[in-house]
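In this section we walk through a basic example: taking a raw amino acid sequence and producing a predicted 3D structure, encoded as discrete structure tokens. The instruction is simple. Fold the sequence below.
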Amino acid sequence: MPARRPIPVPTRPTRQRAAVHDVLAGASRPLTPDEIRAAAARRVPGLGIATVYRALRQLVDAGAALVVAVPGSAPRYERSGRGHHHHFHCRACGRVFEVDDCPRDLARIAPPGFRVDGHDLVLYGTCATCDA
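The resulting token sequence is shown next.
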């Protein structure tokens, strides 16, 4: 029996996908799917969360968006191409913000004989808005 070929995912441009892409492109911080849906629905009324998830999956698969994983929290999404950076998770409001600085030489804290080839850093605390 011949192997089944996967069904191609439609990649034609849609208003919904364009709205999701535009929200990510204009965001200054990683967003949850609900935040993306709310912002994109201003442009495409009635936009559903399932459509947002499909658009996000396609954008991630195409390399246009990245998943931001914060331990103990739902995944967030940001546009790709922003370069190396880290994140700050506000414990009060739950939002995640970008941190442009990096401590760099983390190999010095690795166990002896271990080689570090990457890292991801999440800072936790209270954002400026919640702290005010």
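Looking at the output, two observations stand out. The domain at 15-131 is CATH 1.10.10.10 (Arc Repressor Mutant, subunit A). The beta strands are 65-68, 76-79, 86-90, 96-99, 122-125. In the next section we compare this with other chains.
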